Amino acid sequence: MKKRMFSLALASIMIIGTLGMTACSSGAEDGKKELFVIQKGDKYGFMDNTGKIVIEPKFQTVGEFKEGLAPIVVEGKWGYIDEKGNTAIKPEFETAGNFSEGLAAVSKDGKKGYVDNDGKIAIELKYDETGEFSEGLAAVKTEKGYGYIDNSGKMAIKEQFTMAGAFENGVAQVTKDDKWTYINKGGEVLYSGE
């Protein structure tokens, strides 16, 4: 019994330790070193997989590197840095998400939209909620509910859901009429729970 308790405790410590270290998969798939979030006092930065500090801890908060950029907070505003720690998009947003398919969700004045990797507004900041792009579509929320837009900002699946997940292998899970439902990228119901 004691041996089993020790094994469970050891497994829990290993899981917690693994979850505590966030790897940023920036470029790991194309041969570049991964970057890991580090904390010094109340500031955050990044190290590589050899333990070398690549970006000194100087940010209030950081996100993961995706598509070569990571969201950061400076003086309460969100922006983006590149993998060398240079400002890529000036901190001016209330929130900032990870880049996905060339776009990242940001907000200003309580409304959300998307910027491209140059920091230009690619899709107007007019939504209540925004999700990451996946398979060419992103869930957005308006006063009518959740729907999906394409990367040009055109509504591809009209707002009709109370919740909406990301597409994976051509399927997204949504909630409509208090039921979890699966839809395809054409908005057609594939399965509706009873």
UniProtKB/TrEMBL annotation:
Keywords, sorted A to Z: Signal
Pfam families noted in UniProt: WG_beta_rep
Signal peptide: 1-28
Top-rank taxon, per record: Bacteria
Protein name: KWG leptospira
Source species of the chain: Andreesenia angusta
Cited PANTHER family: DUF3298 DOMAIN-CONTAINING PROTEIN (PTHR37841:SF1), GLR2918 PROTEIN (PTHR37841)
4Fe-4S listed as a keyword: no
InterPro entries on file: WG_beta_rep
